[in-house]
Amino acid sequence: MDVTLRLLKNDNAEFKKIYKWCKNKFVYEWFEQRILSENEIINKYKSKLEKGIQKLFIIQYKGIDIGLVQLYKFEYDIQLDALNDFKNIYEYDLFIGEEKYLSKGIGTDIVKLINEMLYSDYKADAIILRPFKRNIRAIKCYEKCNFKLIADYDGKDTLGNPEIISVLLNTKKH
Fold first, then answer.
1. CA-to-CA distance for 12 and 17, rounded, in angstroms?
2. Which residue, 3, 33, 104, 156, is most buried by CB atoms nearer than 10 A?
3. 8 A C-beta contact, residue 167 and residue 80
4. How far apart are CA 106 and CA 5, in angstroms?
5. What's the rounded Cα separation, in Å, for the pair 73 and 122?
6. pTM above threshold 0.70
7. Angle formed by the axes of helices 38-51 and 12-22, to 10°?
8. Cα–Cα distance, 34 to 29 (Å, whole number)
9. Which of 173, 107, 92, 164 is CA-nearest to residue 140?
10. Which residues contact 36 (CB under 8 A, 6 or more apart)?
11. Domain-by-domain residue ranges, the chain?
12. Is the dihedral of CA 96, 100, 106, 107 positive or negative?
């Protein structure tokens, strides 16, 4: 497979790369809803690495750094009957930050790789993703990877603006 993941290093060069990616409208529209300053990016990701609550990976395509993924245990901030049968649910956020790698099917390969890792290494029994409902590109990618839309709910983006959030579920059984 041409897609690999490597752990994010606690290193300013890594944070500067994320900052560069997060300045792209095709990233911040879905990921932060605004351009974060370089210091905000450094502080955010340094803190995430130090707290260890999330696993952070740089996405590589043919050895080139192209994006970021954050893995974490799903926190039950929404109640859905479809989740009652699962004990070890993971969630993740990802983006491709290099425009020339968009719309080439790489996102599908990334999602498949992350799912395989979560099921084998983290012993997940389900994976949930929660994109904005209007993020059609992401939802189509997830559906290609056996995620099923199980709900939509009224939520907020990182700025506090109302957003409809789609809930997609992938189970080990799919």
1. 9
2. 3
3. yes
4. 13
5. 10
6. yes
7. 120
8. 7
9. 107
10. 19, 22, 28, 44
11. 3-171
12. positive
- Indicate the angle between helix axes 136-144 and 106-120, nearest 10 degrees: 60
How far apart, in whole angstroms, are the C-alpha atoms of residue 44 and residue 124?
A: 26
Q: 44: alpha, beta or left, given left = phi > 0 and alpha = psi -120 to 50?
A: alpha
Among 43, 18, 169, CA closest to 96 = 18
- 3-class SS at 68? strand
pLDDT tens sequence for the chain (174 residues):
799 999 999 999 999 999 999 998 888 888 887 788 899 999 999 999 999 889 999 999 999 999 999 999 998 777 888 888 899 999 999 999 999 999 899 999 999 999 999 999 999 999 999 999 999 999 999 999 999 999 999 999 888 889 999 999 999 765
